[in-house]
Amino acid sequence: MTERPLLASPAGGDGALRSPWIHVAQAAVALAAGMGVGRFVYTPILPLMHDQTGMSAATGANLATANYVGYLIGALAGILSPALVRSSTLLRAALVVLTCSLAAMPVTESPAVWIALRLLAGVASALVFVITAASLLSHLREHPAHLAGWAFGGIGGGIALSGLIVLVLRPFADWRTAWFAAAVLAEVLTMASWNLRPEAAPTARAEPAGAAGDGPRTRPHRWFTALFASYTLEGVGYIVAGTFLVAAIEQNSPGGLGSGAWILVGVAAVPSSALWARLGRRWSRPGLLLAALVIQAVGIALPALVHGVAAALVSAVLFGATFVGVSTLALAAGAHLRFPRSVALLTAGYSVGQILGPLVVTPLLHHGYQRALILAAVVVLTAAAAAAVLRVGFPHQRPSGSVCVTSP
Hints:
Blueprint: E1 2-3, E2 9-10, E3 17-18, H1 20-37, H2 42-53, H3 57-80, H4 88-104, H5 111-139, H6 145-152, H7 154-169, H8 175-192, H9 221-252, H10 257-279, H11 285-305, H12 309-336, H13 342-361, H14 370-390, E4 406-407
Antiparallel strand pairs: 1-4, 2-3
């Protein structure tokens, strides 16, 4: 099978043409700011806050939970008001608010204020993600799926940059400087993604008489239910590693190994979505989703079962190579089913899972992070089981207008 040649996408109402790679680059930068930095910079800064402010593990989990509650609020806004997903003004406002929330973190040492700021950052991150993801699924619909995969790789790029900042600053600066540096980085990325075009407004069109034969012939609800369950469970399991992986590694291997591993997570995440998308040309999305979840479970459990540099680095690679890929595979499967508002619904379920994750493992943190990581790995394996159910009878024939376009 060979891919169709890339077609330029309309740049706007003026009818001008531009390379789809421009849209990919802007979306990648927006996701780097909104997710990679705005959301995940907390992971490498968390050990610094523990050491330098005396913040307890339970408080750290509460801050993480607040961020995920905010993320759920932002995702629900996309469900209740689809017009928000098409607003460039809201996208820009979310990026600005996110940057300001990062800059405000070091101004205070009040846990209540920190919780409010991380809640606000979560809302902004979700809006950035939902708007950007919908934009990619809309504007790149007629292009090969690996293009959108490279855009989602921006999350990994943001993670790597945020981890690098903390690693570089750590020997001579404190947690406050790390937050300020993260805010500066988010501001730079915001400016670079300022002109990203959201999803175009829907246009009314008559469905061809034979269109029903191009897509799934039965109702997509049962497959979407399995997909929703799998992705929600993934939210529970992955976020435990996404929040505590650095702290867990540094608990047994001090000296910056945790921050180095987090950089490796980001580097591995950059090409992961594009690679999983290319694999989708040969294997079904449900099968790939199952494989990615099993690999991720191994990566999450590894540092809890085996100590040392090698285990930490392998864990980072496995986790980074799968967690963004799982998201893109799940969102693409939802779009494939043509389930209404699939991006926002899946993101909302994922958000609920992320809220539950830190809450579920908080009682285990009194004994360190190992038990929490093992529980997270078990939950991800349960998500893999739901993905296995999804494989049964899944309508693999691509409907017209699918994100991935190939021809013999």
